[in-house]
Amino acid sequence: MRIGLACNVKPADLPGHLPEDAFEEFDSPDAVAQIRDAIASFGHDVSLLAAGPGIVDALRETRPDFVFNLAEGTGGRCREAHVPALLELLDIPYAGSDPLTLCITLDKPVAKRMVAAERFPTPAFAVCRSVDECSAVALPPLPVIVKPAFEGSSKGVRLASRATTDAAVGDMVRFVTENYGQEAIVEAFVPGPEVTVGITGNGSGAHVLGMMEIVPKTMSNDTFVYSLEVKRDWKNQVSYRVPPALPAPVLDELSRCALGIYRLLGCRDFSRIDFRIDRDGVPQFIECNPLPGLCPGYGDLPIMADAMGISHRALIGEILGHALARNGMLPA
């Protein structure tokens, strides 16, 4: 099968006017090569499709039978939907969630409102378009965590994002709105363990692939933020515990919530869903990532799979298999 791998590759140089994590969601050339090789190992002819305006001509030239979509896109809160929407317009089947799900999940306030409406626990939050607006909206009690409203890969999340004073909240709202050109979400900080849940499959066949607890090495869960600084130095800053060291009822509730949210938000083929566990042992939904990083040795989902004895090739194969089966394209 001719398979296109749609992705954004990190540029070699960062323009000086952009924040240091402007391309944090993009894949490194090495990561793209490893994912391409994993797909090709199943006998497919794989071509790279750089996500951008040139992808229209690239699709016409390569004429793929199928696209493995990892494209983050550029520009605005609908950017992750650009490539899937184009593929649907051209009637090209692809792996991963559809444009609507990608729009909903990237916009954290929208996703949280949907999740809360279905009675899945999620921390209280408010949205601020400016520092001045902070005084006009009802913010959650301190401490809070301040993040960009529609970013992933910890873009705009720093250790200082956990704010314990009104002045710190204002500083971080200003940091987000001025550097990332979007609203800030001010969310109640949950001072418990952080757990990410990997899910693969579709419909009644969707299942929890695994769960991983992110355990800080240099601070307590009461103050820990899985920030950009931590992720870039994760070997020194955290350890990954698979499965999490949590009571069985909490693990069961994590599974129930993760699968319910996966289906509620319309995720397909694979996703990763993040939670913090509150003081009562209740999993609090933080966000859903239907385009989780698949770089071996760096992305949370591949690290989780590896700890479970699932190779990177097997993980890619499982995702691809679910996507092909959903599109009725599995070989006889």
Textual characterization of the structure:
- This protein has 332 residues and is an alpha+beta fold.
- It is 34% helix and 22% strand.
- It has a five-stranded antiparallel sheet with strand order 11-10-9-12-13, with helices on both faces. A four-stranded parallel sheet has the order 2-1-3-4, with helices on both faces. The chain has a four-stranded antiparallel sheet with strand order 5-8-6-7.
- It is globular.
Characteristics:
3 domains, 332 residues, alpha+beta, D-amino Acid Aminotransferase, Chain A, domain 1, five-stranded antiparallel sheet, globular, Rossmann fold, four-stranded parallel sheet, 13 strands, Dna Ligase, domain 1
Detail the topology: elements first, then pairings:
Elements: E1 2-7, H1 29-40, E2 45-50, H2 55-62, E3 66-69, H3 82-89, E4 94-95, H4 99-106, H5 108-117, E5 125-128, H6 131-134, E6 144-148, E7 162-163, H7 166-180, E8 184-188, E9 194-201, E10 207-216, H8 228-232, H9 234-237, E11 238-241, H10 248-264, E12 269-277, E13 283-289, H11 300-307, H12 312-326
Parallel strand pairs: 1-2, 1-3, 3-4
Antiparallel strand pairs: 5-8, 6-7, 6-8, 9-10, 9-12, 10-11, 12-13
Strand composition percent = 15-25%
Total strand count, please? 13
The N- and C-terminal alpha carbons lie at a distance of 13 Å
Q: Which architecture name of the largest domain does CATH use? A: 2-Layer Sandwich
- Can you identify the CATH superfamily of the largest domain? ATP-grasp fold, B domain
By oligomeric state, this entry counts as single chain
Cα Rg: 19 Å
Largest sheet: 5 strands, antiparallel
Overall residue-averaged pLDDT value: 94
**Uncertain spans, ≥5 residues at pLDDT below 50?**
none
Order of helices and strands: EHEHEHEHHEHEEHEEEHHEHEEHH
Number of domains: 3
Shape: globular
Instruction: Indicate the CATH topology of the largest domain.
Output: D-amino Acid Aminotransferase, Chain A, domain 1
